[in-house]
Amino acid sequence: MKKKLNTSVGVTLILLTLFFFYIGFFKSTDKKQEKKERTEKKVDAFIVTPSLLVSDITVTGSLLAFDEVDLKNEVAGRVIKINLPEGKFVKEGTLLVKLYDDDLQANLKKLQSQLAVQEQIYNRQTQLIKVNGISQNDYEQTLLQVNTIKANIDEQKALIRKMEVRAPFDGIIGLRNISVGAVINSSTLLATIRASNKLKIDFYVPEKYGSEISNGMKVRFTMYNNNEKQYDATVIATERGIDNATRNLKVRALVNASSKELIPGAFTNVQLKLGSNPNALLIPTQAIIPQENDKSVIIARKGKAHFVTIKTGIRKASKIEVTEGLEPGDTIIISGILFLKEKSRLSYATITR
Questions:
Q1: Which pLDDT tens digit goes with each residue over 120-132?
Q2: What is the pLDDT of residues 291-301, one digit of tens each?
Q3: Could you tell me the pTM of the whole model?
Q4: Which own/partner contact pairs does 296-299 have at CB distance under 8 Å and 24+ positions apart?
Q5: Cα-flanking dihedrals φ and ψ of residue 283, to 5°?
Q6: N or C: which end of the chain has fewer CB within 10 A?
Q7: 304-310-316 Cα angle (round to 5)
Q8: What are the residue ranges of helices labelled H in 239-293?
């Protein structure tokens, strides 16, 4: 009986020992797992894969008349006639404004009378010089007077032309600012005239895209207050120099359409397609870590974080092109990047967007 009791006690001790060993083993395992979970950073990751990138940018432009002039007169005077049909088309050379020139016209008639008399004298002396009836000196003096009067007449006609304002090209007259009887000077704005058949757009592109702009390049634009209807234009020239203040290149394009919505002076949104890259590496913009002189991202390698310096290209709405520093297949971290250090252990879920 005593032997059976000892055997039962021994079995019980063995079972208790195994039980406590079992409990201790799993507690140790749980602690290791808990410690591991505390050291690993749970983040989101993105796998870099080549994709199509269409290089296009949108900039603000301004519509302009292809030709536009502020009508002003060269000299001062009193207005005696006005032909400025507001909002109407006029042909090149049409008389628009006439200033008082009676005194100039009278002087012109006087000079023309003097010329007629001197020409008669010159014609008689031409016959006399053939028979030595007049000295060569007198003959040459008469010829000089004839040429001088002709020059004075040309000068007078030029002064008379300055008393007229004519249309420099075919166009539409704007609002007139004068009335008959007004005394004007060379700084008085009479009206404006704009070419009616052609429009152009002036816009600026950032310096880094300057080499992509060339004559004949097609662009599209929408009106600032209407983004639905698109119009076409063709680049005709660039400034051929970067503006020192803005670091932008000025570009001019000819509009290939006409519409009542296209009014000179209106703002536009100009869209330029600068080419495409079927193997561009695009990553989410939130993965970028800006630094003083460059940019970097965090790559996951063998479960650890590694910082890599990169260079970027074209920026889209939510992604940015990486031109140097990454390879297809790299896994980059896109969340919790502010709390990671070099070689931090990572636990991440891969997302695609």
A1: 999 999 999 888 8
A2: 888 899 989 88
A3: 0.62
A4: 296/325, 297/322, 297/325, 297/326, 297/332, 297/333, 298/332, 298/333, 298/337, 298/340, 299/326, 299/330, 299/331, 299/332, 299/333
A5: -130, 155
A6: N
A7: 110
A8: none
